[in-house]
Design a protein that fits this description.
Layout (H helix, E strand, L loop, with lengths): L2 H22 L9 E5 L16 E4 L5 E7 L11 E5 L8 E8 L4 E2 L14 E8 L13 E4 L1
Antiparallel strand pairs: 1-2, 3-7, 4-5, 4-8, 5-7, 6-7
């Protein structure tokens, strides 16, 4: 092989290596969505081994509510049940949804009412309900719910 040919092959190899490094440093969302918050910026070190998310994003066209059902009612909740959300932050606004997913394992309570009589040692069942497409509220807004 000529020196020119070897030089060209070496340059192609370096370009391929640089392209692979760039691909390894490029974040790609697994689905369509809207960036809600950027947690790490260009130049900051991140790793696949650290649990820190780089961004928080969501599909805002399909809102869901995550509800924590007290352990004493866990066996009464089923997929397809109607759920109504309401709350101080929503004012007089109410929205109906449908239970779409129920976790199969109990977990620790993470949402608290901060009342003197509230029990904090109960396990809860996480239930997810799909909301209608015309419902709009800030992501993460705490609401109350009633399962019918």
């Amino acid at each position: 092989m000529s020196l020119l040919w070897k030089t060209a092959r070496f340059a192609q190899s370096r370009v391929a290596t640089a392209q692979q490094r760039l691909n390894d440093c490029t974040l790609r969302a697994p689905s369509d969505g809207t960036v809600l918050e950027i947690l790490h910026f260009t130049g900051e070190g991140v790793s696949e081994l650290t649990p820190d998310p780089v961004i928080i994003f969501a599909d805002l066209s399909h809102l869901r509510v995550r509800a924590e059902v007290d352990e004493s009612y866990a066996l009464t909740v089923h997929r397809g049940q109607r759920l109504t959300i309401f709350g101080r932050a929503l004012g007089s606004k109410r929205a109906s949804g449908t239970v779409s997913y129920i976790k199969s394992v109990m977990g620790k309570k993470t949402v608290f009412a901060h009342t003197a009589t509230e029990r904090k040692d109960l396990d809860v069942l996480q239930v997810f309900a799909d909301l209608p497409p015309d419902f709009s509220a800030p992501i993460g807004l705490e609401v109350d719910f009633e399962i019918e």
